[in-house]
Amino acid sequence: QVQLVESGGGLVQAGGSLSLSCAASGSIAFIGNMGWYRQAPGTQRELVATISRGGSTNYADTVKARFTIARDNAKNTVHLRMNTLKPEDTAVYYCNADVRVYGSDFDNYWGQGTQVTVSS
User: Fold this and answer.
1) pLDDT per position in the chain (120 positions), as tens?
2) What residues have CB less than 8 Å from 26, skipping those under 6 apart?
């Protein structure tokens, strides 16, 4: 079993910054792609950023140049640095990872989500 636990959400004023972290734990043999998604009330969950094991990144157009994703393969963690936050960034942010546990194939896992609220 794999758990993804996010931390770092909260309330910030527009123009401010926040950092999110996600730690994966369990019987992990290998972690492939990791990423962050978000879901605002009444909307579908959307991609924010992803990062491959080798460090290749992909960002949603709405966050490019403001957000930075990074990972630490040794610690099974992924981080999201969010700068110049806007009210429209308000959402629940979810960590996501492709994980292979010992004795099994890859599966996709989600964290429980952390709330980010940006006030105007």
Assistant:
1) 899 999 999 999 999 999 999 999 999 999 999 999 999 999 999 999 999 999 999 999 999 999 999 999 999 999 999 999 999 999 999 999 999 999 899 999 999 999 999 999
2) 1, 2, 3, 99, 101
